[in-house]
């Protein structure tokens, strides 16, 4: 059986789309369709059900993917290692995507040494769900996700936990009765403006739910779709907010920001490093993953 047919089959099976698979394997959609048809003829069984949106694998396809997948992936890894040689694991530009704040303040610095090992990096910033959609079709090689990715085409490993902290500039912090805040919760904050990166206040909602057991009731006074902008506005005294501790660690250390509350169990969110199923042992993916997993605990 032709190995290229199996590689195309696995791309279709894992992505659930002929179009996405075509982008991933670098062929036209008509070629991918013809390859799947050829494989079905060779096996004498239907592998996919064509649906209005994508394809659905049959039980025969699931069985073939389970049997052939590890072997095809291993051959692809061997081939990449052969091309990479002994000097560098990187044979092509690597496309990495993730949230703007973490990428800019932590990830790029963590990967800097790999540039001298031959890594050519192409970075895309954005929201997790939009970025994860680009993994199965090959637009990205790795995505840092703010939640656990789902779907059979994507594998992931926990990267780090980001801790959230309720902060304000010292001038505003002085207006908060800390005892009342601990006793009565957000009622002690009702006169202070909220700063958020989205109208629906996702990080603030998480903090309120975890620490206070309730939902925020006031609308944000300032909305900035970048946590670095939220940080700047908060340091300037525009209002209070909830930020990942890694993002405001310097401001907390210098006193430019003050934590309004230090709960015994702070709210956290686990970040994941996601990649396409079958690529985890590729030398380039493995090198970036190892570097990030080594550096992430210090974030």
UniProtKB/TrEMBL annotation:
Residue ranges annotated for the HTH lysR-type domain, each copy included: 1-58
Keyword terms: DNA-binding, Transcription, Transcription regulation
Coiled-coil boundaries: none
Gene3D superfamilies per UniProt: Periplasmic binding protein-like II, Winged helix-like DNA-binding domain superfamily/Winged helix DNA-binding domain
Keyword 4Fe-4S appears in the UniProt entry: no
Domain of life of the source: Bacteria
Protein name: LysR family transcriptional regulator
Lineage: Bacteria, Bacillati, Actinomycetota, Actinomycetes, Kitasatosporales
């Amino acid at each position: 059986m032709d190995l290229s047919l199996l590689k195309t089959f696995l791309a279709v099976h894992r992505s659930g789309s002929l179009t996405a698979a075509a982008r991933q394997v670098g062929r036209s959609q008509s070629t991918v369709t013809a390859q799947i048809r050829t494989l079905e003829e060779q096996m004498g069984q239907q592998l996919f059900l064509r649906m209005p949106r994508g394809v659905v694998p049959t039980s025969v396809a699931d069985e073939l993917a389970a049997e052939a997948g590890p072997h095809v992936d291993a051959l692809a890894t061997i081939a990449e290692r052969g091309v990479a040689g002994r000097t560098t694991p990187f044979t092509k530009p690597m496309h990495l995507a993730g949230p703007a704040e973490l990428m800019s303040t932590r990830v790029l610095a963590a990967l800097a040494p790999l540039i001298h090992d031959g890594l050519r990096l192409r970075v895309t910033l954005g929201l997790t769900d939009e970025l994860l959609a680009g993994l199965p079709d090959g637009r990205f090689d790795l995505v840092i996700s703010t939640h656990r990715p789902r779907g059979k085409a994507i594998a992931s490993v926990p990267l780090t936990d980001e801790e959230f902290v309720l902060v304000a500039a010292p001038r505003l912090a002085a207006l908060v009765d800390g005892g009342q805040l601990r006793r009565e919760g957000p009622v002690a904050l009702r006169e202070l403006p909220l700063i958020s990166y989205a109208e629906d206040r996702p990080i603030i909602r998480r903090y309120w739910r975890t620490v206070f057991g309730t939902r925020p009731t006031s609308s944000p006074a300032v909305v900035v779709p970048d946590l670095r902008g939220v940080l700047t506005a908060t340091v300037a005294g525009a209002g209070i907010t909830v930020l990942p501790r890694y993002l405001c660690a310097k401001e907390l250390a210098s006193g430019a920001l003050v934590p309004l509350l230090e709960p015994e169990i702070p709210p956290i969110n686990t970040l994941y490093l996601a990649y396409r199923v079958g690529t985890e042992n590729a030398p380039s993916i493995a090198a970036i993953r190892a570097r990030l997993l080594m550096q992430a605990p210090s974030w």
